[in-house]
Amino acid sequence: MSSGNFLAGRGKKLDMPVQPRYIVFVETQETNLVPWKRCDYVREKIIQSAVKQIGRYGFRKFTMDDIAADLGISKKTVYKYFESKQQMISAVVDTRLEMEKNRILKAVETEGGFLDKLNAAIFFFDQTETPQQILEELQRYFPDEWQKSEAIGKFKGEHFRRLLLQGIQNGEVRPDVRLPIIDLAMRKTIPALLDYQFLNQNNITVNQAIEEFKKIILHGILKREYVGEACADHEKQVEDMDDSPGGGSCPGPV
Question: What's the rounded mean pLDDT across residues 227-231?
């Protein structure tokens, strides 16, 4: 999750319309503009306030009273839209995941080369928006909500494959790269890098972990002077195993 801001400060009191009226518009496939009614506006304001309170107090310690006070409404009004704190947390997670999908789509559709889009869409995590302690709390105490993030992993995987194919077509990526292998490494590794136990045990941040993985994927682990020797050894091993001289081509430094 990387859109929105869990650390935003207190905002203005909720400006409640006296009469129900159309005040917000969103695009849909059916029509260009669809009006949101007052109830949708209030619900979204409550979710926005919940995001702020979670950033301030964490998932477990924020209360419905905090949200009511922040928006200048009664707690009864908050419960009108969300029956429980758990339901509200679920709505916050759903909202953040949807925003993350939109961010990825925007990143892959912008102009730029393979590396620019890869960095923006796949290897991006803003810890100022989603602090590491928030991730840990979500994983430890709300595992069902954390499981929803698997959908983002699959979503990123789909766009990563498309970016790789575009990179090959544009001549930015080696044409002999075996996409299923890279795809498997991405799908299995990226979620693991967000695991709070792994991060704590190794005393590293999410960004440090992702950056290191990106370097391995793009540049390998060998120093430049050893790449040629390693390639020769690798190709010899492949020839000995399956007698396929062309199948063991080795990458040079990117």
Answer: 59
Cβ atoms 101, 152 nearer than 8 A? yes
Query: CB neighbours of 44 closer than 8 A, spacing ≥ 6?
Result: 24
pLDDT band at 147 (very low <50, low <70, confident <90, very high): very high
Return the CA Rg of the chain: 23
Q: From CA 18, how far away is CA 38, in angstroms rounded?
A: 10
Say whether pTM exceeds 0.85. no
In terms of pLDDT, which residue wins out, 177 or 226?
177
Crossing angle of helices 64-71 and 38-57, in 10° steps, is 120
Domain that includes residue 31, residue range: 24-219
Token output for 36: 């949101």
What percent of the chain has pLDDT above 70?
A: 70
Q: Structurally, how many domains does the chain consist of?
A: 2
Does 191 share its domain with 254? no
